[in-house]
Sequence to fold (596 residues):
Amino acid sequence: MPSPPPSTAAAAALQLEPLLPHLSTLSHYKQFHARLHALGTLHSYPSLRARFLDRLALLPHADALPHALLLLRSLPSPATNDFNAALRGLAASPHPARSLLLLAGRLLPAPAPPRPRLDALSLSFALKATARCSDAFATLQLHATLFRLGVAADVRLMTTLLDSYAKCGDVASARKVFDEMPVRDVATWNALLAGLAQGTEPNLALLLFRRLAGSFRELPPREEPNAVTVVAALSACAQLGTLKDGLAVHEFARTIGAVDNVCVGNALIDMYSKCGSLSRALEVFHSIKLEDRTLVSYNATIQALSIHGHGEDALKLFDEMPARIEPDEITYLAVMGGCNHAGLVDDGRRVFDSMRVPPNMKHYGTIVDLLGRAGRLAEAYDMIMSMPFPADIVLWQTLLGAAKMHGNVDLAELAATKLADLGSNVDGDYVLLSNVYASKSRWVDVGRVRDTMRSNDVKKVPGFSYTEIDGVMHKFINGDKEHMRWREIYRALDEIGSRICALGYEPETSNVLHDIGEEEKQYALSYHSEKLAIAFGLISTPPGETIRVIKNLRTCGDCHVVAKLISKAYNRVIIIRDRARFHRFEDGHCSCRDYW
DNA sequence: GTAGGGTTAG
Fold:
């Protein structure tokens, strides 16, 4: 098609440019594209074209990105900016790895047009993609590319690189990039802090935060901690469950005036909830102005109510969500989890049936648990069968747990078979199956399970608990004698045993594999990590003080009974945060009402 | 003009 003379094209570009920020629907974009094309501006005004392409590629519509790619492919010689627009769109799409294909020239038509020169932006977008797909090797390759092309390694690009390494789980490389950077700013610090906090190093993250917060007045302005720093630090506190640290970070947030930031508010809700203070979490939620609350504010608060056993309140808050905020998959998971922990079976089922987003594996997991615990095993099984995708290991473990709870041998065997098919080989599965047989006195089958365990080299998931005394974390593993004061702790457990026996305690040994004698079973139970932690708390804190314990797995039935009795016999409030929720023991009762 | 760091999940 012949292009209009340049003067006309320039006039057209001038006329089109102001429209660009107002395009909203895909149809607008298509019309704009047609006019760019008809007026000859597509080729004579590459900057307008690139800005158009950039916006189109990021438009949240399933056909927008393909259309942008089509346009890119139609260009005889795309410019760096055109290329970057597509890279950015692909990196932010549900298939970020495709931006790496484009980078390699694989998405361009054959014979490929000359690929434009790459710049810092190209690499920045590609690094975003490798971070999103956790591809550590691709990150490393881009790092090499960056040197090979001699792209200026400025603070922004290097921060992106650092962040990408951290998000791919390669914290060592992230630190190395950090150490070698000649100039850093607050985003650099934050990327490292968040990398440590979200990886497996929340303790290191807190150390780093304390260093930053302790010296923040001496830092150059561009390195001063800000709201993002606070959010990352709060996430470390939430993981660790250390209320003391969380309170200190909150105080720091006030110092730097970051508390009005809604993300800080949301992170505070989560931190307080996971550190055991539901009241403080709710206080923060209510302090956020109604119009400032986001979906995350509601999700975090509903989740807080759920893990503290307040299912009714979680449902109420869910119903009260303002119309401007659409619940997402996390909202549904949180509110159904709340129903599950509070035994609100019909409410949970109703929420599930009313979901306005497609349920994922976790939603099915929660609803199967909910139905299974309530003894509605057929319904739970039908739920699994009705799923549009195959059930995973956790889901079959959930069903197995329910089958054990209600003594259903057939369902337990079925779940165990599925688990074996899926390659699960953890001790808990076998213990549950064996206990179903034991509950029906099927000792031959019990023996068979034990033999399978021996021949399969079963993995034991180690249970551990920790408790904080005077600012120091003490960690306990089942039956361990590593602690400096282990003799005192074991002596205390003996004393606890006799005091709670007087209150009618009988060891609940059905949670132990039936391949050992009754006495050994009791022994295996009495030194569960949470019991060691509680005993240590009892002997190292003054009478009446609350004992707080965090456990990596779910609390076992026997420990639950024991914690209730200790709370009565010693007049102590005991709070255990397990994998799924909080248990608050007081005067012989638990906040979960024995349903969890 | 175009880039970096953040909170919710069985």
In short: DSSP finds 31 helices and six strands in chain A.
